[in-house]
């Protein structure tokens, strides 16, 4: 009942405010072409979240309307949707904080994590970012390589032990990888053992995070869509009551947050005395940085307990499932492309032979970087299967968004830029941009890592932080962990492909790219009760 009452009040208020705003501001982006909105209240939002295959809708629309078009948002609003690289560069990289997050998205992060880096805006965000940046410098990240290798080795040992008994392992690949990356982030960030690989089903934290995005965001119905869309019209302090709604998914979010807070306190409890005792004045690991920030004299470098725990929660959620799902899709593609899998394994083994010949026993960063086929497979997987398929931004000021690919307006005019008013919502489809034939070639819908050896990058609009991809986003809020993730993936792939052969399951299953909000994950078609799932047949590599 309270849930219904809160929803009703929120949606009614939002509807009123949206209508008022429409009457006051008639200009908008009506001259931009786009698919007709199927419903005044929900716009295209319901169709979008109910897509069977993630992003099929924008793949279709970009063929029909060009690379920038208009879709329907909730409450009769218009959303400017784009896959245009120049528009992305302008909004994410050149405008600083002038394009901000939608309340709906940063408040959802706040409900999950509290005041961490993903849920704070403007000056606060700048402060969080400044404090965290040193922990993610290229030099510092190198020191994590032995950890990545140790956890990858541990996963290997577990599979080998199972294979001794069975000869062939039919298992949920994503679950294993998710546990491994959870252990990695726990140790890298907090020197804490989440015990996910060893504990398996018994690891409370691994169980707590499992399928969190699916549980909260998958296949929302109209009432949920409208309730969440209403947040964009309401004052943020009022939204804090959502935390206490005694109904799904708010209870699920609260339970995970409570569980995490116990861990957070335990980690702080164990770490603070150590950091104090050792006076790690120069230490750059994430935990000591956060603890030091708590006692900083400089208000620009301060962070309180609430923020520290939120940061830990955020790193745990942002730093494990993203990487493990990307690896999952990569190994899935390798299972479908045996020829590439063989070549990749050969390259890994030949570099390994060189390492042995020089008396070494582990890959260095330079060795990993010399694995071109591995790096190309990572790039190609980030391109075709971006875990965050796109992001919304809201214009804070009136502006004009430039386009690399002009579009034709409803009156036949050619638009090489789109004027927008403050408050205009934009959706940047990263998945769509990463399928542009003009940028990636004609076979853009095929997983083909070799494209990265022949791409001419000089001619393209530069976007993103890596390989001209948007998968890690860009600009002031780009992924802080992108290098961390790359080295982690390189280390895991070198270990796993050297030792194992990956094949699709004998019994044919259809893998679906499912969407939870803007997060993509693999699912077995028709088996959504399994949650995120990627069944795989693993054996020892010849
Ligand atoms: C393949 C792996 C990964 C992908 C595809 C990915 C993608 C992204 C994207 C798209 C964003 C922007 C989100 C937004 O603006 O709302 C982001 C932000 C972020 N990522 Fe990643 N990420 C990955 C791995 C990691 C790792 C390993 C870490 C930590 C060790 C991490 C930590 C973060 C943090 C803290 C933010 C928030 C940055 C901010 O708002 O300033 N990510 N990531
Ligand atoms: C943000 O907008 C203001 C006002 O329009 C402008 O002066 C400023 O240069 C913009 N900032 C960036 C980084 O573009
Ligand atoms: C942060 O500072 C407060 C007040 O100075 C103190 O009570 C708290 O224990 C500190 N927390 C950490 C994690 O250092």
Automatic annotation (TrEMBL):
Leader peptide range in chain numbering: 1-22
Cross-referenced InterPro entries: Cyt_P450, Cyt_P450_CS, Cyt_P450_E_grp-I, Cyt_P450_sf, Cytochrome_P450_monoxygenase
One Pfam family named in its UniProt record: p450
Pathway: Secondary metabolite biosynthesis
Domain of life (superkingdom): Eukaryota
PROSITE patterns membership: CYTOCHROME_P450
Residues at which heme binds: 479
Coiled coil ranges: none
GO molecular function (one): monooxygenase activity
Gene3D superfamilies given in the database record: Cytochrome P450
Cofactor (UniProt): heme
The entry's keywords: Heme, Iron, Metal-binding, Monooxygenase, Oxidoreductase, Signal
Family named by the database record: Belongs to the cytochrome P450 family.
Protein name per the record: Cytochrome P450
Species whose genome carries this gene: Dichomitus squalens
Native organism taxonomy: Eukaryota, Fungi, Dikarya, Basidiomycota, Agaricomycotina
């Amino acid at each position: 009942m309270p849930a219904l009452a809160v929803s009703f009040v929120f949606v009614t208020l939002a509807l009123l405010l949206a209508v008022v705003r429409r009457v006051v501001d008639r200009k908008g982006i009506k001259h931009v072409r786009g698919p007709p909105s199927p419903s005044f209240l929900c716009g295209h939002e319901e169709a979008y979240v109910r897509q069977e295959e993630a992003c099929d809708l924008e793949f279709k629309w970009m063929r029909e309307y060009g690379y920038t078009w208009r879709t329907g948002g909730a409450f009769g609003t218009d959303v400017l949707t784009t896959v245009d690289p120049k528009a992305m560069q302008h909004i994410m990289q050149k405008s600083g904080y002038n394009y901000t997050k939608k309340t709906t998205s940063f408040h959802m992060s706040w409900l999950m994590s509290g005041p961490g880096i993903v849920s704070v805006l403007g000056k606060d965000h700048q402060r969080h970012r400044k404090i965290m940046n040193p922990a993610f410098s290229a030099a510092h990240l190198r020191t994590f390589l032995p950890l990545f290798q140790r956890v990858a080795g541990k996963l290997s040992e577990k599979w080998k032990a199972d294979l001794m008994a069975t000869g062939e392992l039919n298992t949920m690949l994503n679950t294993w990888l998710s546990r491994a990356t959870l252990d990695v982030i726990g140790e890298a960030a907090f020197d804490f053992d989440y015990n996910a690989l060893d504990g398996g089903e018994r690891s409370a934290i691994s169980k707590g995070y499992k399928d969190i995005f699916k549980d909260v965001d998958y296949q929302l119905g109209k009432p949920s869509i409208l309730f969440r869309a209403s947040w964009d019209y309401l004052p943020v302090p009022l939204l804090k009551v959502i935390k206490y709604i005694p109904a799904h998914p708010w209870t699920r979010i609260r339970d995970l947050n409570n569980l995490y807070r116990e861990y957070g306190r335990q980690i702080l409890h164990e770490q603070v005395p150590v950091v104090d005792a050792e006076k790690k004045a120069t230490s750059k690991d994430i935990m000591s940085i956060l603890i030091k920030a708590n006692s900083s004299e400089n208000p620009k470098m301060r962070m309180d307990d609430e923020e520290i725990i939120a940061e830990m929660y955020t790193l745990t959620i942002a730093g494990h499932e993203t990487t493990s799902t990307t690896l999952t899709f990569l190994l899935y593609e390798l299972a479908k492309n045996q020829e590439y899998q063989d070549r990749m394994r050969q390259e890994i083994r030949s570099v390994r032979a060189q390492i042995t010949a020089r008396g070494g026993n582990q890959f260095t960063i330079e060795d990993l970087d010399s694995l071109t086929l591995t790096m190309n497979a990572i790039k190609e997987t980030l391109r075709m299967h971006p875990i965050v398929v796109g992001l919304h931004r809201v214009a804070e000021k009136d502006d004009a968004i430039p386009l690399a690919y002009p579009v034709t307006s409803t009156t036949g005019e050619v638009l090489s830029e789109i004027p927008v008013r403050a408050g205009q919502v934009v959706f940047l489809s990263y998945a769509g941009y990463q399928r542009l034939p003009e940028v990636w070639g004609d076979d853009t819908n095929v997983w083909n890592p070799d494209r990265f050896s022949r791409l001419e990058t000089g001619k393209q609009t530069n976007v993103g932080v890596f390989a001209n991809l948007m998968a890690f986003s860009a600009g002031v809020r780009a992924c802080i962990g992108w290098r961390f993730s790359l080295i982690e993936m390189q280390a895991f792939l070198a270990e796993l492909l050297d030792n194992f052969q990956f094949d699709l399951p004998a019994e044919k299953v259809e893998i679906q790219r499912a969407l939870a909000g803007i997060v993509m994950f693999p699912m077995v078609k028709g088996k959504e009760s399994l949650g995120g799932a990627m069944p795989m047949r693993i054996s020892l590599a010849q």
